[in-house]
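The aim of this short unit is practical: by the end, you should be able to scan a pair of folded records and say something sensible about each. We start with the first protein, listed as its amino acid sequence and then its structure tokens.
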Amino acid sequence: MKYVIILFYKYVHIDDPEAVKKQEMEVCERLGLRGRCIIASEGINATFEGTRESIGEYIKELEKDKRFLGTHFKLSFGTGNSFPRLSIRVRKEIVSLGLGNCNLDPNKISGKRVSPEELHGWIKNRREFYIVDMRNVYEHKVGHFENSILPLIENFRDLPKIVKQIAHLKNKTVLTVCTGGVRCEKASGFLVTQGFTDVYQLDGGIVSYMKKYPNEDFRGKLYVFDGRVTMGFYTGDVKHKVIGRCDACSEQSENYVNCANPVCHRHFINCKNCLAKNNGEAFCPGGCVLSRHGRKISPVQI
């Protein structure tokens, strides 16, 4: 049985998010889908896994609601166990920016869209522009566009910090990129509000570019928020480059793990050799420093 993972979002006004949540829950449970969905008054952001048939049926069901017509669905191969359960929640935002009272509506202000084909042309024709990766550090450590700017942020809520790091590009052509596009809708709009004069966003996100141009321009693997952790296209090809580095020994690796200390659970890259040395358990190479809640903790002795 072939499994498929669907990734999508849409910024559209939803009067009653709870009603949409109920509707989504009923459809997903009936089709046997698992995954995550966030619904807010500003729209929907979701990723689900199911059989090819059930995902196809889900798309038909969603598009019965005119508000969701025209949604860009990104499909990739699944494993059948990429998500442990089905989670559908109502929140204030489908992507948390942490901008306080700054209410950005991507339908009113956002960067201009660039298709994967257009970006490919920009790169091949050596157009002057700057790719700014809007993902977190642990995401772009394992894969990113060549020569892209990789701001040092730990969470998308740190977006204001990016502005300071790239302030010198305010009068340059800037292209924002992220996994599927949902973060760049707001991030590019935020840059516009901060005085950036020529801002673009990669339509469909990095995953769409990788699918169209595997192992070209984007190097390494794409970090994803499901059981696969990372994904790539034709990774056995000689053109595929491993750019991730083991946090313990600096050898090339794309193997993400969580610290075995339950209080820490930090996410980092650990190669198979280092894992084998610790009997398959991974602990922070430099010792655990902060808990998941930001409190200082004592390192685990190994």
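Turning to the second protein, read its sequence before its tokens, just as you did above.
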Amino acid sequence: MAAGISSWGLPISRLFMAMYRNDTFRAKFLLAVEALLDGPLSAKRCTSELETMVALMTPEMERHTARWRKPLDREAWEQEVNVVRAYAKGREAACREQLARLRDKHNAE
């Protein structure tokens, strides 16, 4: 996150980094992101929501793939679901790592 933001050079990136230098904004931003990662965007919650959707969709996938061929078949759909599962499980840790890099970058300045 931090390493990429300043190198993008996009106006929104420059605006965010300028705002992030403000102590009040930075504290509120970090608290908000931590709250999201601890709650609605936690790996546990995302995985739970995914499994709920998979349970609802699984009974329909044979008919769906037979008619539309996208994904090709149920096995292909299950492979795609597994990709999403892996993403959901790793996303929280990746976001926390990005936050740590952002903090480190700020502290180094």
